[in-house]
Amino acid sequence: MGHLAASVPVMEEAPPVGSVNREAEGRRWVAAGPEVTCEECFANLDVYVEHELEGDDADVLVPGMRAHLEGCPACAEEHDSLRDLIASQTGGRT
Predict the structure, then answer these.
(1) Other C-beta atoms within 10 Å of 44: how many?
(2) Phi/psi at 30 (5° precision)
(3) Which of 29, 49, 56, 70 is deepest in the core (most CB within 10 A)?
């Protein structure tokens, strides 16, 4: 993250959608924890989905993935498609 990290506020939780925080206006918020790129997301998506379907804590086992999926519509669509496909083939279990 280099020099950018020092200038970007880090939050434990993103503000609620639609909320207005005058102090935070104009700032770029990033999730606390490891950042995951689209390439890393795609490479680990099958593992993440398998953990989800097994009932494991996928967010702990694949850190940063949930935050990436919440902020990246393209990867979220891939996640949903893969999860639906695997669930339909396995009855919801891997």
Answers:
(1) 16
(2) -125, 150
(3) 49
